[in-house]
Amino acid sequence: MSARNWAPNTVWNNPIHFLAFGFGSGAVPFAPGTAGTLVGVIFCVILSPLTTSLYLLVTSVLFLVGIVICHITSQDLGVHDHSGIVWDEIVGYLLTLSVVPVTPTNLIVGFFLFRLFDILKPWPISWLDRRISGGFGIMLDDILAGLVAMAVLYGIHLI
């Protein structure tokens, strides 16, 4: 396996790595970003009873935590934005669903929209992804993908 696809043993015995790897979901051998986003779906359902303000506050705290844990894990592994680091997918997906009701349809459409924009990384996401490193850089591209997906999902919701 390439350096970007292997899951280190520290995922299971280092709590920071375990969190950065999305509670272990990023350790799957194929499509770790998709697996991490599925954890985001679970988080979204759990947080759905919160008011929008509180939901965004929790999402913001998870973003700040993500900057730290993704930076530490990336440094420890010696790989910038290791494919198994999926905390950023969890937070990006939460942002996608932040302004629409949490319904089965919105969960599914939001999932596909977020994955689409996270994978394609349209400009300016791709530009920023190449230029900003560290934990903030790891988190930023998924936050931007989440914002774009949120805007599209909100537009669909208005129709």
Can you give keywords for this protein?
mainly alpha; 70% helix; globular; 159 residues
Helices and strands in order:
Layout: H1 10-13, H2 15-20, H3 32-47, H4 52-77, H5 87-96, H6 104-120, H7 125-131, H8 134-158
Helix pairs in contact: 3-5, 4-5, 4-8, 5-6, 5-8, 6-8, 7-8
Structural commentary:
The structure is a single chain. By secondary structure, the protein is mainly alpha-helical. The chain has one domain (10-158). The chain is 70% helix and 0% strand. The protein has eight helices and no strands. The protein has helices spanning 10-13, 15-20, 32-47, 52-77, 87-96, 104-120, 125-131, 134-158. α4 (52-77) packs antiparallel against α8 (134-158). The longest helix is centred in the middle third of the chain and has 26 residues, at 52-77. The N and C termini lie far apart (45 Å).
Q: What's a concise summary of this model?
A:
With 159 residues, the protein is an all-alpha fold.
- Helix % is 55-70%
Order of helices and strands: HHHHHHHH
Beta-strand fraction estimate: under 5%
Oligomeric state of the chains? single chain
Principal-axis shape equals globular
Derived from helix and strand composition plus strand pairing, the structural class reads mainly alpha
Average pLDDT level = 93
Could you tell me the number of beta strands? Answer: 0
Work out the radius of gyration: 15 Å
Straight-line distance between termini:
45 Å
Query: Total helix count?
Result: 8
Provide the domain count.
1
**Uncertain stretches of 5 or more adjacent residues:** none
Largest sheet: none
